[in-house]
Specification:
It is a multi-pass membrane protein. One of its GO terms (molecular function) is G protein-coupled receptor activity. By secondary structure, the chain is mostly helical. The protein has one domain: Rhopdopsin 7-helix transmembrane proteins (Up-down Bundle), CATH 1.20.1070.10. Helices cover about 80% and strands about 0% of the residues. It has a two-stranded antiparallel sheet. A hairpin with a 2-residue loop joins strand 1 and strand 2. Helix 2 runs antiparallel to helix 4 and helix 2 runs parallel beside helix 9. The longest helix has about 45 residues.
Length: about 350
């Protein structure tokens, strides 16, 4: 995004001498739209396939399966918001879809990002309990309790989305309709407060819990002397799942929360630093796309964390491969038959 033009220079000059001015939104580069659509399209395919495996191919669900299924739902529901975001970028950062669509976007994105964090945290707690405290009784080992826990998470996400819809409406700023934007001057204080609540309770605390659980789990696994090939494979799968979860937190959610926090601080205390605000806006959208990569990485958790899922996944792939081979063989056979018929007709006619 070019911020070196004369308009920006005037704004920066005015801000440096303390004059009241505004920072109008700028159109984002087309690459952001392309990457956004690509990431969430891949995520939709992977999570759609995962949901199909969960619902159609796994007969007996365990507690871990319930958590992973809800994680897949939280990933998939972000996809309907993607066309709205892409159209917003294409229209020069101007929201033209009304209040309801804005509230829907906020609800979907909130449920996606913080639902994913919540279920990843519950999966880390569940894995810790199942491995480290394998012989001790725990509510996390009961499927009924885990189902109620997931319902409670979804109820909390719905209530949170309704509150956001009330506190963060569409506003008109500098001739642009804005929805969930740093340029909404009237909502600066609301964004500041909401961000720090999300940063502390929606990210820092769940991330800390996950790190503690996976650290204890890794220590426990490192002390286990597994001699059988099957036991060694299970140990390696658990360690890979630990690595994937921590990568998702570090790559997908950490940059998003840090950049957004810096953005709301600058907007509240240094609102006239327009070049910096515009750079932070672009950085936020870039980290938003990074956050969407969790949709593509979460299916690896299902594969490494659930034996039933990996077994059903491999079985489904084998069936698809066999069907493709049979279709190719049929097509080849039909081609040979057609060629033979043509050759026969040609011979008779001569």
């Amino acid at each position: 995004m070019d911020i070196s033009g004369p308009t920006t220079a005037v704004i920066w000059q005015n801000s440096s001498i303390g004059l009241e001015t505004d920072c109008p939104p700028e159109a984002q580069h087309v690459s952001l739209t392309v990457l956004l659509c690509l990431v969430y399209l891949v995520g939709l395919f992977l999570n759609g396939f995962s949901l199909w495996v969960f619902t159609c191919k796994i007969r007996k669900w365990r507690t871990g399966t319930v958590l992973q299924f809800n994680l897949a739902i939280s990933d998939a529901i972000a996809c309907p918001a993607t066309p709205l975001m892409a159209a917003y970028f294409a229209k020069g950062s101007n929201w033209e879809f009304g209040n309801f669509a804005c509230h829907l976007k906020i609800a979907l994105l909130s449920a996606h990002f913080y639902g994913s964090i919540a279920f990843l945290t519950l999966i880390s707690i569940h894995r810790y309990v199942m491995v480290v405290h394998i012989k001790q009784a725990s509510p996390m080992k009961r499927k009924g309790f885990v189902k109620k826990l997931c319902i409670g998470v979804w109820c909390f996400l719905v209530v949170k989305a309704i509150i956001y819809g009330v506190l963060l409406p569409v506003t008109t700023d500098d001739g642009h309709q804005q929805c969930l934007s740093i340029h909404q001057k009237k909502l600066t204080s609301s964004y500041f407060t909401i961000n720090f609540l999300l940063f502390i309770f929606g990210f820092i605390i769940p991330f800390t819990i996950s790190v503690v659980c996976y650290s204890r789990l890794a220590q426990s696994l490192s002390r286990v002397n597994v001699k059988s090939p099957q036991g060694q494979a299970i140990k390696m799968k658990s360690l890979r799942m630990i690595g994937i979860c921590l990568v998702i937190f570090g790559l997908c959610f950490l940059p998003l929360n840090i950049v957004r926090t810096v953005g709301v601080i600058v907007k509240k205390y240094y609102p006239m630093h327009c070049p910096l605000l515009l750079q932070l806006e672009t950085a936020y959208y870039a980290t938003y796309i990074l956050g969407g990569i969790n949709c593509c990485l979460d299916p690896l958790i299902y594969f490494f964390g659930s034996h039933n899922f990996s077994k059903a996944f491999r079985k489904s792939l084998r069936k698809i491969t066999v069907r493709e081979q049979e279709r190719d063989n049929r097509s080849e056979s039909d081609t040979v038959s057609y060629s033979a018929k043509r050759s026969g007709v040609y011979t008779v006619s001569t």
